[in-house]
Amino acid sequence: MRRVKQRLAQRGAAFKVFYFIAVVLGWALLAAVIVAIWLHYYPGKGRASTAFASAVPWLLLAAIPAVIILAVTRRWISTVLAVILLGVGIWTQAPLLKATDAPAGERITVVTSNVTLGEGNVDDVVAEVASSGADLLTVQEITPAALARFEQTELRSMLPYEFVVPDDGGVGTGIFSRFPLRNTAELNGFGLNNLRAEVDLPGASSTTVYAVHPIPPYPYDPDRWVGEMKRLRQTVHSTTTDRVIVSGDFNSTWDHAQYRALLENGFRDATEQSGGMWKMTYPADRTFPPVIAIDHVISRGFVAADLRTFGIGGSDHRGLVVSLAPTGS
Predict the structure, then answer these.
(1) Cβ atoms within 10 A of the Cβ of 69, count?
(2) Are 142 and 315 in contact (CB under 8 A)?
(3) 232 with 306, same domain?
(4) CA 300, CA 4: separation in Å to the nearest integer?
(5) 8-state DSSP, 187
(6) How many domains does the chain have?
């Protein structure tokens, strides 16, 4: 009888330890969700906050096991809080879930690719241009050597007009177009090359196209990144043409407040419009799939009807292919 009581006591003690660990784990997961929601709305300027903001979608997933664990352990107040936070987390990502109806008519196909210090496989990019029937291609980190490789392909026959400022060290950027470019300019005040041009597209005359590549918050000073994102917002929002396409490596995600600040004054994210939901593009050169989305196409005067990614050998980014439908007349 004594042994039975001892065993029951031991089991009771083990259960209490397990229960305590489970509750602490549930609270820890809940804390991660709170941090994720805060990072989504907080315009972080430090290296840690900008880095962790990129992980917000993954941190938000912690709400699911938090609800389960806290419910099983009957921590009802905490469970209700976890359910509320799960709803708030879904709300932060909700714009990416539902597609906007695109008008019938012309479709403009935009391809953007980061070729990583010029080492990416240009044939992969050109093959995507050919298969998608691209009208515009923007390329980041294009070097003189990479440009020479591009010009040895059939790209020139498909997109005969170009405005390219190549450079080494990830600085170079280029715009390639099926239609003539005019009023080309390099943007001032950026560490990497950021370009602008105007083009008449089918159903979308006088469209301003930007090929952008603000510096990353790491390894650069994150204050510089904040400054460049602010400058980029001021630049694109001051564009005088009604139709604008901004394409490139933004070094920021949907969950960076500085990125969402671009999505004002009529600008919309192609992932948001197409209901693409977390089309991850970086890093693409690991043994695991990309975990964040820092390559984007945003526009004004268009609706994104479709968005997908594609692989580029030798690059740490996946490219984007976006189909845009002009709105209005």
Answers:
(1) 22
(2) no
(3) yes
(4) 74
(5) P
(6) 2
